[in-house]
Write a structure and sequence with these properties.
Strand content of chain A: 15-25%
CATH class of the largest domain in chain A: Alpha Beta
Helix content of chain A: 25-40%
Largest interface: A-B, 56 and 56 residues
Radius of gyration of chain A: 23 Å
CATH architecture of the largest domain in chain A: 3-Layer(bba) Sandwich
EC number (chains A, B): 1.6.5.-
Enzyme class (chains A, B): oxidoreductase
Strand order of the largest sheet of chain A: 5-2-1-9-21-20
Shape of chain A: elongated
CATH topology of the largest domain in chain A: FAD/NAD(P)-binding domain
Organism (chains A, B): Fulvimonas yonginensis
Keywords (chains A, B): FAD, Flavoprotein, Membrane, Oxidoreductase, Transmembrane, Transmembrane helix
Oligomer: homodimer
Protein name (chains A, B): NAD(P)/FAD-dependent oxidoreductase
Largest sheet of chain A: 6 strands, mixed
Number of strands of chain A: 25
Chain lengths: 430, 430
């Protein structure tokens, strides 16, 4: 056993923004850290929609966790999946082993949820992982290919109808980008069908898009989307999704491509922590982000339910997760120093950004509201800046500059064991 | 019906180097062209090993066929898979329809072959498509992850043994790059296992590597590989491959990662053309590349068996396929002009290149033989030059420069529905 084995062991589950921020904030702490993730990479999720819409390749927004942490000598990275947590024994069991901890940070995030309609998942994929992004890319690109192959206009139409469900940032990004692809990227390339005839619908059950933003920005986002060619339907509930398309209220719409951006549910690991959960499955943590009865266990990021002074929840976005990760690290350091003064987590809101398309975005920073090109530039600079790794920033910038001037999207590659693995309404279930 | 419908219809099956060259060489011919491929992209196969070894992302070496051909008004691209050819009716049947042709060019290439041991495919993936490359990337990266997770040195060893079967250009490239990854890219990132202890074996049944090259270059390639840390075993037959590893002659070797670069077989479509085939399933075409009894049907690229004056076969490489494509196009033009003078295909051999690793390659041009850095520079310039699309060239150059100086490989991302989809010797069959 090396000397390090006697140091307190911090186990961190999940290498997203929250988990990674915790690891880094403990770089010079007298602890051994083990970061466990079931994937080998950290994902820059805010740009995942660009992979889904063929604008960026996967390695541009993902980096191996062990590459990111290769210089942090007190951190070990393991590829494994947590099965359960034994809080009394301070032990996490994984698919391929177990680890004892002195401190545990649970940062396993969220996945998409279909609100009791799990059968919709087959027809309306969501966007959380790189594999999700590849699945969406494949469906979108193949829809245009199917339309080109189809000689009967009645059969062709459903392949050119694209429905995005959910008017939050992801839905807005996807719908805006799909409209751009149909109107600008593809038209010259097809001979039999006309991609410009594609309809892109963005459906939101609530009264407005981007509910987390100021209502004036919601209205501006809607106008910018409509200028790009997106049909925006607010106050419209999706009541069914199947092989033929969607039902909007009572109205059926034939659409072969439906994308889900409507709901998230917290990671199921939250259920094992013995603490109360909110409706979305998030863990109601103590003010310092620890579990009420277990000050050595912290829950951070999208898995944590934290209320602000005004009663609203802190949002499930990257800056929150990072701040929570640094807070959990600070609490671990304090406890190592036997300092147990309560230190509640406070989210410092640095603003919110949502992108829509070329030179189209909205942003709010305190009382400042931006939209159109100024918001888009802020969004671009912020996202390039926060991308992990210098190389990625440079390549992403180059890819974007290229895409911007040429309207080309360089990652329009369909792969997958069955390159046509779109569920076929006439075929057997997958 | 538009006026174009009365023009002769040229159907081209396969959008590889051969098929694409045919389409382009017919750009200003009075024909309608339909290019059909089961994938949506042209693949720059000479760099596929870089995707498999995480050095390049897929979009850097692949471009959508319809993007490449968007300005060629007489060409239509369809995504579909040919099922059979009715030579008498001049009709190709596809999975989703059928096309009548006046001229047919069959350029559906080759796939890897296991010489009657199809059960080896599960344990030893080959490298022909992007999906193959992703599968190899996943296995190689996960092998190092498994080694890191494994605490028992006896259990760890097989995860650090890599066997590449086949000493042709692909095998040499894979083995050289694997050794580089183990020795230079990964070491600082692992805490429990040492990637430098990985063994990379290159196994060739014949007496020397790179049999298509001059023997002096084979010897140089072997020395360069050994300097990179590859163990080269020539004259060694692989007699078994299973969950535990390989058998080399009578000697078993425990290895969890075996890559297959040993054999190719021509596309099964060749069997439907009524012409004699060679042992590898290639079609024995007439001297002008047409089918003996069907002057309106041409077979080109890896699917065609063409002898040179000295009795050797023209090799299955990109320059040959391109020259064949241009030849088939010229023959179609001649026949449109009612010119039926025989015009046999002659391969103009512009030389051969094989890369091994950093500053390590071999090249021969006529009597000129190069190895080491000069050959590597020629290889680099040639491959960047021939990459389709300016953007790709620039980004690939940037990626390589970055990888060269930092030893990092930016595409080390493991994806796949089951991120650990390596066949598990203890698990059920896939």
């Amino acid at each position: 056993m090396d000397a390090g084995a006697t140091l307190p062991h911090v186990v961190i589950l999940g290498g997203g923004f929250g988990g990674l921020a915790t690891v880094r904030a403990l770089a010079d702490a007298p602890v051994r850290i083990t970061l466990v993730d079931r994937r080998n990479h950290h994902l820059f999720q805010p740009l995942l929609y660009q992979v889904a819409t063929a604008g960026l390749s996967a390695p541009s927004i993902a980096a191996p966790l062990r590459q990111i942490l290769r210089r942090q000598a007190n951190a070990t990275v393991l590829l494994d999946e947590a099965i359960d947590v034994d809080l009394a024994a301070r032990r996490v069991r994984f698919e391929h082993g177990a680890l004892d901890y002195d401190f545990l940070v649970v940062a396993t995030g969220a996945t998409h949820a279909y609100f009791g309609h799990d059968d919709w998942a087959r027809w309306a994929p969501g966007l959380k992982t790189l594999d999700d992004a590849f699945a969406i890319r494949r469906r979108v690109l193949l829809a245009f290919e199917r339309a080109e192959r189809e000689s009967d206009p009645g059969q062709r139409r459903p392949w050119l109808n694209f429905v995005v469900v959910g008017g939050g940032p992801t839905g807005v990004e996807l719908a805006g980008t799909l409209a751009e692809i149909a109107r600008h990227t593809l038209p010259r390339e097809f001979r039999r069908s006309d991609p410009r005839r594609a309809r892109v619908l963005l459906v939101e059950a609530g009264p407005r898009l981007l509910a987390a933003f100021d209502p004036s920005l919601s209205a501006k986002a809607q106008r910018q989307l409509e200028r790009l060619g997106v049909e925006v339907l607010t106050g419209t509930a999706v009541t069914a999704i199947d092989a033929q398309g969607v039902r909007l209220g009572e109205q059926p719409l034939a659409a072969r491509t439906v994308l889900w951006a409507a709901g998230v549910a917290a990671s199921p690991l939250g259920r094992q922590l013995g603490a109360p959960l909110d409706r979305a499955g998030r863990v109601r943590v103590a003010p310092d982000l620890s579990l009420p009865a277990h000050p050595e266990v912290f829950v951070i990021g999208d898995l944590a339910c934290v209320e602000r002074a005004d009663g609203t929840l802190v949002p499930g976005v990257a800056p929150v997760a990072k701040q929570m990760g640094r807070h959990a690290a600070a609490r671990i350091r304090a406890r190592l120093d036997a300092d147990s003064t309560p230190a509640p987590f406070h989210y410092r809101d640095r603003g919110a950004l949502a992108t829509i398309g070329r030179m189209a975005a909205v942003a709010q920073f305190g009382r400042l509201r931006l939209s159109g090109p100024p918001a888009w530039w802020v969004w671009l600079v912020a996202h390039i800046y926060f991308l992990i790794g210098f190389r990625n920033r440079l390549v992403v910038l180059l890819d974007w500059a290229w895409a911007y001037w040429t309207y080309q999207r360089h990652a329009r590659i369909v792969t997958g064991a069955d390159a046509e693995a779109v569920p076929d309404p006439d075929g057997p279930p997958p």
